[in-house]
Amino acid sequence: MKRKIGVIVVLVVLFVGSPVLAGVKSFFDVDNKTISSGLVAACKYEYDIVIIAPEKFTQEIQPLVDHKNNHGVQTIVKTTEDIYSAYEGRDDAEKVKYFIKDALEQWNITYVLLVGGKKGQSFEWYVPVRYSNLDDGFSRYTMFISDLYFADIYRGENEFEDWDSDGDGVFAEWIGFTNKDVLDLVPDVYVGRLPCRNEIEVSTIVDKIIGYENNVYGELWFKKMVVAGGDTFPAFEGPEGELTCDRAAGYMKDFQITKLYATEGTLTGPEDVINAINEGCGFFFTRAKGGTDRIRIVTTDETEFVMLHNRHLTKLKNMDAHPICFLGECFHGKFDVCILNFIKLLLKDPNYHAVETNSDVIFECIAWQLVRQKGGGAIATVSNTNLCFGSGGDTNNNGINDDSEGYGGWLAVEFCKLYREEGLQTLGEIYGTSIKNYIDLFPVRTNKIHYKSVEEYILIGDPSLKIGGYP
Predict the structure, then answer these.
(1) Rounded to an integer, what distance in angstroms lies between the CA atom of residue 16 and that of residue 37?
(2) 371: left (phi > 0), else alpha (psi -120 to 50), else beta?
(3) Domains of the chain
(4) Is 306 helix (H, G, I), strand (E, B) or coil?
(5) Quick one: which H or E segment has residue 95?
(6) Residue 203 — φ and ψ, nearest 5°?
(7) Is 397 exposed, middle or buried (0-12, 13-18, 19+ CB in 10 A)?
(8) Cys bridge to 378: 223, 325, 355, 391, which one at CB 3.0-4.6 A?
(9) How far apart are CA 295 and CA 305, in angstroms?
(10) How far apart are CA 431 and CA 419, in angstroms?
(11) CA atoms within 13 A on the CB side of 267
(12) Residue 381 near residue 461 (C-beta atoms within 8 A)
């Protein structure tokens, strides 16, 4: 792991209280490497991860900082308050991104952890978000959260990627055929978010991360994987969700696989899922139908039932046996939901993009509730912030179901492949590399659906998480 170099710059006193603004060059170089005189000032350090959070969360975060440093993962915290005062930008999200750029260039960071979601059930944010403005022609939503914005730092070699190539102030725009921003999209750092709404949630997930990394290694339950699916597209031949689960599980050859499948009668309702997770598993993988607060299963006769709902999560008593969850359906990671959204819904506010249905008027999305659940639940979830896509059948007759060869199904399978075949061991590296590989393989910049598939793909968890814990 990286170590502090600790070269103290005597002239640091010249810069105290004088933060440099974004885009302004600093006054001196050290070892031919420019040192910013803003928040990444004073000394030439190298860090593995920077945690960005509001000041009120820093006390709860400190045990995580100490834990990471003890494992050789060099960690530093910067507050949103400090970032906003030190950087210029068109909004708070852009200020944070300029800071990440500085941290990447001066500290050589690999990971960024954003700790903060909405302030309680209000409309304000502890850590800002960026909304993509894309009309895919299928969804009722034309705006959705994309944390990929904070990972995609450069356009080309070293030009700042502001996600507004036409300069009209509308970010990540793709409306119609010609009204389009040209984006790089390739992540330059690995970003994860814990959308905590209060200090209690911060403490809960910090304790879970520390316990996971310290205690999971060598535990037998970790070598289990639960996969759950159904017949996602009954109009096509084959139970697509189950087939995609099969392909993903096929890469986990040394894991004990529990298959909860609607067509086989092993998945009949929430109790089957709750029981399987409570027995302990390292991974929980689903491919079905989505919702902000639920996962739905479609059977071959086109009937539907709820496989898991927010109200069921209090029954999770898996204690310290927390799985990494891959939820391959729509809307599970839509963490901008809140109860007060009913006001915007009643007023039919045309300027408020988040509320278009009652599904936005809930306390939290299922992907986050799984992670912040105390006494059980998940250590992290990988999912989608909006409507996602899949395919049915086997149109190229290659013997592999189409759902696992494109869109969200491909990303799901790639996650398992990168972990078991290529040996990637940190959560953020697997997540970020899957995005890079998707961009290399599919026509992301010319096809709206491929474009959206990577933009809405989100990691709710610690990107530096050592999968399976430390020896």
Answers:
(1) 9
(2) alpha
(3) 216-421 (3.40.50.1460)
(4) strand
(5) helix 92-107
(6) -60, -40
(7) exposed
(8) 325
(9) 9
(10) 10
(11) 30
(12) yes
Q: In 3D, which of 411, 408, 409 has the Cα closest to residue 400?
A: 409
Rounded mean pLDDT, 73-91: 98
Contacts of 256 (CB under 8 A, 6+ apart): 223, 224, 225
Computed from CA positions of residues 8, 12, 17, 20, in that sequence, does the dihedral angle turn out positive or negative? negative
What does the pLDDT look like over 281-321, one tens digit per residue? Answer: 999 999 999 999 999 999 888 899 999 999 999 999 999 99
Give the predicted TM-score (pTM) of the model: 0.90
Residue type, 119: K
* Spatial distance between the Cα atoms of 205 and 364, rounded to a whole number of angstroms: 16
Q: Is 340 exposed, middle or buried (0-12, 13-18, 19+ CB in 10 A)?
A: middle
List the beta bridge partners of residue 118: 125
C-alpha to C-alpha distance for 102 and 37, rounded to whole angstroms: 10
Per-chain mean pLDDT for the chain = 89
End-to-end CA distance of the chain: 15
**384 — phi, psi (to 5°)?**
-130, 145
* Residue whose pair of structure tokens reads 């190298």 in the numeric block: 46
Contact 231, 401 (CB under 8 A): no
Helix (H) or strand (E) holding 174: strand 173-175
* CA distances from residue 169 to 94, 142, 172, 349 in whole angstroms, order as listed: 12, 16, 10, 21
